[in-house]
Amino acid sequence: MRHATALLAVLLALAGSVGSSPLPVQAAELPAASQQIDLEELATDLTDKTMQVFVEAIRKGDFTDLRDMASARFKAAYTVADIRQAFRAFGATIVTGDPLADAMPVFLEPPAMKDGLLAVQGLYELPDGLLLFDLAFAPEDGDWKLDGIDVAF
């Protein structure tokens, strides 16, 4: 990674504030063919897409698109109003431009399969501070769907 070990130690300590795991956490079946993929590359792609949608949801105050990219289990558990409530702390945040345009996700630990989910924990370094994330993705219908999300700024 492009960061010093000391920074990583500090970030690991901060990551505890993101939460122990994103919601919901239940096992999902991983297709055998998917086990041969590069998890870091996949996690980078999924994280970038998810966080772009998250930032846009904060900008618009509408989490419909974020919920639309989620797994069936996530959709069954959470309405758009539930998601908006979960991220109400971001309500006063004014998003201008594309804050993630030049940022790459930095993973606090290598993305890994845990309980059938692709678990991804890390951060983006932004001009105004760190954007911490804890994400989970489930294989569903031949694609990867958001199955858990926790974000802190």
Protein architecture, described:
With 153 residues, the protein is an alpha+beta fold. It has helices at residues 5-15, 39-60, 64-68, 72-77, 80-86; strands at residues 106-107, 112-114, 117-126, 129-140, 143-152. The protein starts with a helix and ends with a strand.
Radius of gyration over C-alpha positions, nearest whole angstrom: 15 Å
**Helix segment count?**
5
Euclidean distance between termini CA atoms: 21 Å
Strand content: 15-25%
Helix and strand succession? HHHHHEEEEE
In brief:
The chain is α+β, with helices and mostly antiparallel strands. It has helices spanning 5-15, 39-60, 64-68, 72-77, 80-86, and strands spanning 106-107, 112-114, 117-126, 129-140, 143-152.
Topology summary:
Elements: H1 5-15, H2 39-60, H3 64-68, H4 72-77, H5 80-86, E1 106-107, E2 112-114, E3 117-126, E4 129-140, E5 143-152
Antiparallel strand pairs: 1-3, 2-3, 3-4, 4-5
Identify the notable features of this structure and list them briefly.
153 residues; alpha+beta; 5-stranded antiparallel beta sheet; 33% helix
